[in-house]
Input
Amino acid sequence: MMHFDRKNPDVLFCDRRKETIIVTDRSHGRADGTRTLFVDPDLQADFREMPFENDTFYAVVFDPPHLVRAGKKSWLAAKYGVLSEDWRNDLRAGFAECFRVLKPNGTLAFKWSEEQIKVSEVLKLCPVRPICGHPTGRKGLTHWMLFLKPGEQVGVEQ
Output
């Protein structure tokens, strides 16, 4: 949902789903009140267990599902997915995987919406503190944060 150029060869979009979903969404003016969503990742993979070697990427963007409750035909649930009842362990595993696949000093961009779970609860699950962040959206409920994977300090004498 955030890509400026889905065909950029330097970007790899992963999602565990690959599907076409028709949901109710009257905001787009279709006579039947539906909207079609295509989830078409470059690679099907679960964020809790990514199929990459350690220290692979310079940057990772982590935009996990943020809902624990959603209707069966919910646009947001179709767009982002829904967390399991074990969401704390899922997100803890997701953060661990993001840092595992990042190179030392790599950058993790993280997006979270506080619609149902406060960002403060989610940050308790991450082993690294963010270096900066900013709330966005109409209600200020979506948070973007930036993390650095610990590693060698560049340009600093030891």
Q: What stands out?
A: Helices lie at 75-80, 87-101, 119-123. The first strand starts at residue 14 and ends at 15.
